Each structure stands twice: as C-alpha cells, then as structure tokens.
Amino acid sequence: MSEPTNEPGQRTGRRWNQGLRGVLWVCGVALVIHVIPLFLPRNMPEQELAIARATDNVEGRLQFLVPLKHNDKATAADLRMAAELLREGAPAEAHDLAVEAERRDPNALETQLLLARICDRERMARCVEQSLGRAQKLAPADPRPELLRADLSEQKGDVEAATAALSRAFSRTPGDPLVGVRYGRLLSRMGRPEDALKVFTSLEGKMPAARLLVEQGLVLTKEGRSREAVGLLQQAVQKDPKLVEGHYQLGLAWFQAGNADAAEEALRQADRLDVSDTRALGTLCTLQVKAGRLEGARQTRTDLERRFPQRMDAIREQCRLP
C-alpha cells in the first residue's frame, strides 16, 4: 500500500491556512488590546481625556468630559483641557468645566484666559471683560491678557481696540520681538507709519537685522515710499541672501517704484530659494499682467502649471490672462 504524498497544492494550502490563522491571531490580539480599556473602570481623568482626544465628534466627547466636573481626581489643568476640547462645539459645557477649574485653582491665569475665549464664543461680552480683568489682576506684568484682547478685537474688525491692547502688551514686555512686530504691523495698518518705525527701531538687537529691515521696508512700501523701501530691502538681502521674504518684498517694492525688470529678478530669486511655494511666481505673473507683459505672464503661468499640476485651478485664478 503506497503512502500518501504531499502534493504541492496541499503544502500551499496548509501554508495559506497557517498564514491566515496567524493574521487572525494578530488581529484578535490587537482588538483585545484596544477594547479592554473600554471595559475597565475609568476613574482617572487622564483616561477620559485620552479617549475624548481620540473622538472626532463633540457628542462623543461630551460623555467622557462632562463627568470630570464631579471627579475629585480631576485637577484644574485637567478641567481646562476638557473645556478646550469642547470650546468650539459645546461652549456651554466648556464654560461649566472652566468655572469648576477656577473653583479648584482660583489663582490660575490660564483659566481666566480660557474663560475669556469661551465667553467670546458664547457672545457674552461682559463675561469676556470680567475674565480678562481677573487675568490682569492675577498677573499685572503678563502680556497675555492684552494679547488675547487684541486677538478678539481684531477678529471683530476693531483694529483700533486691537492696537490699543497691543500697545499695553508691548509696554509690559518692551523689546519682545513677537509682540513688537505684531504691534508695528498693526500701527502701519492704522496709517501710523512713523509710530510703526519707532517700534521697529526699538527692536534693534532683539531680532535678526535682515528681518527687521524687511519689516521697516514693508511700512515704507505701504506708504508709497518705494525708493526708500527698496534701499532697506536691498540691505536686508545683502545681510541674509537666503531670506526668501526679503527678496519677495524687494520685488514688490521694485515694481511699485516702476522697475519691472528688477522686480522680476527679485521675485525669481525668491522662487529659486523656495521652489515649493507658488507665491513668488504667482505674484510675478500677476504683476506681468498689470504691466502689460502678457507673453511673459503666459510663460510664467505655464511654468507654474508644469511644476504644480495639482494646483492648476488656483494658479489660473491667481493669474488671469486677458
């Protein structure tokens, strides 16, 4: 009697079955690892916060975060995090959590700032002012309450109030480049170029010289003082030849000064320094159309479309040819 033979097909079938069992086993272990935590008692705020962060919709987050208000283990920081996760979609519940955070830690500046943002989301102007007022009392030298006031004012289109808030913030942190640059730009936007230039002058030595020259050049360009702006921006790119923004703004200033050739060269240099961005060539194409250089504009747009085929519609919208 002959013994059974292991045909190739049988061996392949066994290996396939073994492989399938292995895959199913791995998938089963992974499923258990992910499911077990859902059945464990969850009395730690960190667990609720972690699950809520992994939940996309607000309704799903509510069931994990709202109970933290009554969880004795939840710290003020935990409650602030929960409120932040609900701020956009469920501001009323976020407000309750932030108030509880305030009760547990009345001296936390971060809680007052969060309350101000939540109240703004709920369109409760008085609540916003009260929260910002408490924040200022808690930290008189901290610029963050005024910076937040500037944010909220600017969002509402109240540039004057935003500028006043930034003035107070800058007085609390004189020489802070982040606050100073924002304040200077807003002063320029308000039509106060000399005040803006004074602010930027006060930042000398506090930020890279080339970037400061670009900010000063922007003020002059906005005021139509294009020749002066060109001089400052040329200094900027000499100090930092790889500063993309310097070459870009120099191109705009040159065009405003009436030198289209120099403008093109500066914008092309900005493009060479950052070939992943469409802004420089897109702007060049627009300026070429304005100058009546239609053949050059067609070539520039064609170059952009070849380099960024996935952005073709946006490119054609930015640079419309007659």
Q: Can you tag this structure with a few keywords?
A:
Tetratricopeptide repeat protein; Serine Threonine Protein Phosphatase 5, Tetratricopeptide repeat; 18 helices; CellSynth/LPSAsmb/PSIAsmb; TPR repeat; 322 residues; mainly alpha; repeat; TPR_rpt
Taking Cα atoms only, what radius of gyration do you get, to the nearest Å? 30 Å
- State the CATH topology of one domain: Serine Threonine Protein Phosphatase 5, Tetratricopeptide repeat
Number of helices: 18
Beta-strand percent range: under 5%
Main sheet characteristics? none
**SSE pattern, N- to C-terminal:** HHHHHHHHHHHHHHHHHH
Number of strands: 0
Task: Detail the poorly predicted runs.
Answer: none
N- to C-terminal distance: 91 Å
Overall geometry comes to: globular
* Estimated helix fraction: over 70%
CATH level-two architecture of one domain: Alpha Horseshoe
Mean pLDDT: 90
CATH class of one domain: Mainly Alpha
Structural class: mainly alpha
Question: Can you put this structure into words, describing what you see?
Answer:
- The protein is an all-alpha fold and 322 residues long.
- Among the domains are: 45-140, Serine Threonine Protein Phosphatase 5, Tetratricopeptide repeat; 208-274, Alpha Horseshoe (Serine Threonine Protein Phosphatase 5, Tetratricopeptide repeat); 277-322, no CATH class.
- 74% of the residues lie in helices and 0% in strands.
- The protein has helices at 8-39, 45-53, 58-65, 76-86, 91-104, 109-121, 125-138, 144-155, 159-172, 177-189, 193-201, 209-222, 226-239, 244-256, 260-273, 279-290, 294-307, 312-318.
- Helix 12 runs antiparallel to helix 13 (226-239), helix 12 (209-222) runs parallel beside helix 14 and helix 15 packs antiparallel against helix 16 (279-290).
